[in-house]
Structure formats: C-alpha cells, structure tokens
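Technical note accompanying the year-one report. For the benefit of new consortium partners, we illustrate the data format agreed upon in the data management plan: each record pairs a sequence with a structure-token string. No post-processing was applied to the example shown here.
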Amino acid sequence: MDSHETPAKEFEYRHSPSLGGVIITKYIGPSPHVRIPREIDGADVVRLGDFHIGLDNRVFVTDGILSIYVPDTVKVIGYGAFNECVDLRTVRLPASLKKISNALFFGCVSLESIEIPDTVKEIGTAAFKGCAAMTAVKVPKGAVKIGMGAFDGCAGLGKTLAPWLAENQPKPVPYKIGKNQGEERECTCGYRISASGGCSCGV
C-alpha cells in the first residue's frame, strides 16, 4: 500500500467476483483528505458504490471531507457517490473513467474545479447540478454525451463552458403553447429556448 493511501480499515467494502476486484461502499474514516487505495486484500479497487434514494448509502457521508483522490484502478464511480459532500473542494478522477454518473457531484456546493479525463464519453443527468462554487473545468477532448441539467446551477462556469456545451449537448426543444410555438429567446451559450424557461448551461 502507498504510504499516503487511506487505510482499508477506514472503508466498508466487498469483493465482487464478477468485476474481478473490490467495491468500496462507504468511507467511515476521520480524515478530511481521502486517498482511495489501489488495492484491498490483494485485489484492485475497481468501483465506488451507488447512492440509493431514501437510504444513507452514499459512499461519502461524513461532513468535512475536503479532497478525494481516486486511483486509475477504479473503472466505475456509481450514481451519486459524492452526492451532497458540501465541504468537498477538489477531486482527482481516474484516467480509466468512461462516464460521470448521474448526480455524481449533485449539491457539492464547495467544489471549486474539476478535471474530466479524456476517456470520459458521457456526463450523466444532474452530474454537477448545484456546484455553485465551481469556476474551472477541464473538459475531455472529442464528442461527449451530456445528460439533462448536467451543469445546472453552475453559474460560475457560465460563458467559459458555453461553447463546449453548445457543441456537445442536444439543443433544447422550445415549449409549445396551444397550437402555436411559444416565444423564444437565445441564451448566451447560443441555444434557443422558451422565453420563460431556463437553459441547462446554467447561465
């Protein structure tokens, strides 16, 4: 084990024969700085588990977590794993990651910046919703599928992210009122949306 890694005893985890490694289901340690171990019990850590609505099953439930480092052995980070980690400021994502899961950083109001690996080809619904403090994001190269409201409430990104969103995110469909098309306006990101609606770019 790397001397800087968080000890295995500070996690709840289980072995998954089908995935060929360990799934971490919960962090139970005291440190505000978490470095996920590459291995536990001689097996690679390959997944961070899911958040289940209505149950206290988030991977990180302890207030006061400031940083999380995820090693490249991790292939999947489950739905909402970092959901509402309100003190979280920095996260290192693995270079092996292909998708930012739905609601992964939902409500992480202190998250300041993120570097999304070039391996990521999909960003899920509400993935960064409510990350109001985020002012910098490094986006992956190439085409990326972006879910509904992935960056809602990220006003700090605004025009910085707008050109990339305009290129990758599906154009919203304006509302229809009766038989007639509703009035439209153009967001600063270039989308045409309902005059009374908000844009998913967060501007």
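Partners are asked to follow this layout when depositing records. The radius of gyration is 18 Å.
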